Amino acid sequence: MADTTPFFDRLKAAAQTEWQSYVDHDFIRQMEAGTLPQAVFRQYLEQDYLFLIQYARAYALAIYKSPQLSDMHTIQAGLNTILGEMHLHVRLCQRWGLSQADLEAAPEHSATIAYTRYVLDCGQRGDLLDLLIALSPCLMGYAEIGLRLAPAVAANPDHPYREWISEYASAGFQEAARHSALHLHQLAERVMAPARWADAVAIFAKASRLEADFWQMGLDLGQTRV
Ligand SMILES: Cc1ncc(CO)c(N)n1
Q: Thiaminase-2/PQQC domain location, by residue (predicted)?
């Protein structure tokens, strides 16, 4: 690839509409303002726990699809971030009287199924690059959102979503996202043929849209179950 722009930034630029629909979703704006109803957040977080279980499977699949041992090590670090992130969900849900067993027994919403099984399918039918592209909106998007919302927490120590925002703005999460972006870039340099670009953008755009749908699911569920 002659273009030295980071591969992830090229994907974002090529699928700007879908990316914006995800990172600028109304859910995020309401969260930043602190006006997001708790019922919405709770519905979202329950589904997100189920999402992360499937996401961990997709990371495991990425290890299976790894051509090199170095790929496996990098993906293992990403998997650890995902598994660590689930402690946040368990902690927050415990305060609402929901145990880990309750969370795991909850039914998966179709938006959760759609997104996770889409990612798993990308990995099953494609190679590691396809799978890492499908996985990339997750870590990178939440890292971007965490950074953008951090000032709202700094300005208001009683912000209702302080813990959630701080998790994604944390140095650990930011670094995991940076590592993933670098890995994606290096893998693309190794295996990406120019003819694959349109497919790469299509996968990235679809995953970003499914992230936006995931926020929307939270808003819709919260409205019907207050
Ligand atoms: C839906 C979704 N996307 C990304 C992340 C970040 O890991 C998450 N927790 N949930």
A: 15-220
**Could you read off the pLDDT of 200-226 as tens digits, one per residue?**
999 999 999 999 999 999 999 987 754
Catalytic pick among 18, 85, 167, 211: 211
Nearest to 219 by CA among 142, 137, 115, 109: 109
Average pLDDT for residues 91-120, to the nearest whole number?
93
Residue 5 lies in a domain: no
Report pTM. Answer: 0.95
Give 52's contacts (C-beta < 8 A, 6+ positions apart): 82, 83, 85, 86, 89
ipTM score over 0.95, yes or no: yes
CA angle 79, 83, 86 (to 5 degrees): 145
In a domain, 119, yes or no: yes
Ligand 1 pocket list (CB less than 6 A):
48, 51-52, 82, 85, 138-139, 142, 211, 214
46 is catalytic: no
The CATH number of residue 49's host domain is: 1.20.910.10
Interacting residues of 37 by C-beta distance below 8 A, sequence separation 6+: 222, 226
Total of domains in the chain = 1
Whether residue 7 lies inside any domain: the answer is no
Q: Which of 18, 138, 144, 167 is catalytic?
A: 138
- Which protein residue has the closest C-alpha to ligand 1 atom 4? 138
Kindly state whether residue 166 falls inside one of the protein's structural domains: yes
